[in-house]
Automatic annotation (TrEMBL):
Pfam entry (one): ABC_tran
An annotated Gene Ontology molecular function: ATP hydrolysis activity
Keyword field: ATP-binding, Nucleotide-binding
Protein name per Swiss-Prot or TrEMBL: ABC-2 type transport system ATP-binding protein
Organism (species): Tepidiforma thermophila (strain KCTC 52669 / CGMCC 1.13589 / G233)
Domain ABC transporter per the UniProt entry, residue ranges: 5-231
Length: 306
């Protein structure tokens, strides 16, 4: 399978801050590929580099089979975190204006704009000021704009931030139906979203890729179940005892909980209750998820918890 994007040893620095530090990633053509990482990990910097078809200061970047050029940039559709639409325009005006920038004009521009407004559930608001649209509608409009010229590569930087579940479902159903054979490169903090829509994902930390694979592969490398433990209060002694029972390599701290991966959750839960039951505020057993894989790879392990 050919690759839509290949980054090898990319380094990008802003003053003293290193945003990408030996970043290497291969995105297969036609895939929906998710880049996941905490804020400041470098995922948005990488998407911006690809969106601008910019040669990195260090390392190499290949986009759609060749080096970054202006002609390559014309084959990319981009949705950044911030909405770019003019609030005084109408959705139809905005799409027609954007179409012209990509060389789609006349009847083709009008038909394509009308079709996308219909598919994204915006046809009834086509002639209303954008300022009157909800946040979710504006995000759908941004994605429609990015799809106007039928790009070969669609870049989405946290496209569903602030979007309610119903609108998120509509947005993704439409993107997946309208992308044709385009590659989708998605940067997100929403692990459930990535698990649902991505063929492949990469976990990024401190400007480097630390793990790649399909969601199923990354979950397969975990144990089968996760025990989520909430303590009454932080205690290094209790945390050390829990790590001893579960095995430190299978314990991560996230969102005020300890996540323990295991093949026998009921047995581990019984051991925990017997050993440190009075310190436990809540305990839940789940099937291992992409979120659990993420925290195992990216978040601090129990060895770093004091």
């Amino acid at each position: 399978m050919s690759s839509a994007v290949v980054a090898e040893g990319v380094r990008r620095q802003y003053g003293e801050r290193v945003a990408l530090d030996g970043f290497s990633l291969e995105v297969p053509e036609g895939s929906v590929f998710g880049v996941l990482g905490p804020n400041g990990s470098g995922k948005s910097t990488f998407l911006a580099l690809v969106a601008g078809a910019e040669r990195p200061p260090e390392g190499s970047l290949t986009i759609l089979g060749g080096p970054p050029t202006r002609s390559v940039r014309a084959r990319i559709g981009t949705v950044f975190q911030e909405n770019a639409s003019d609030p005084l325009m109408t959705p139809l005006e905005y799409l027609l204006f954007a179409a012209g920038l990509f060389g789609v004009t006349g009847r083709a521009a009008r038909e394509r704009s009308a079709d996308l407004l219909e598919r994204f559930g915006l046809a009834a608001r086509a002639n209303d000021p954008i300022s009157t649209l909800s946040g979710g509608m504006r995000r759908r409009l941004e994605v429609a704009r990015a799809l106007l010229h039928r790009p070969a590569l669609l870049l989405l930087d946290e496209p569903t931030t602030g979007v309610d579940p119903e609108e998120r479902k509509l947005l993704w159903e439409t993107v997946l139906a309208e992308r044709g054979g385009a590659t989708v490169l998605l940067a997100t903090n929403d692990l459930h979203e990535a698990d649902a829509v991505c063929d492949l994902v990469a976990f990024v930390q401190a400007g480097r890729v630390v793990a790649t694979g399909s969601p199923a592969e990354l979950k397969r490398n975990l144990r089968k179940q996760t025990v989520r433990v909430e303590l009454h209060s932080a205690s290094s002694e209790v945390e050390a005892r829990i790590a001893e029972l579960a095995g430190a390599d299978n314990v991560a701290a996230a969102n005020g909980e300890l996540l323990l991966t295991t093949d026998d959750a009921p047995a581990l839960a019984a051991q925990l209750l017997a050993a440190v039951g009075t310190a436990i505020r809540g305990l839940r057993i789940d099937e291992a998820s992409l979120e659990d894989a993420y925290f195992q790879f990216v978040q601090r392990r129990m060895e770093a918890v004091r």
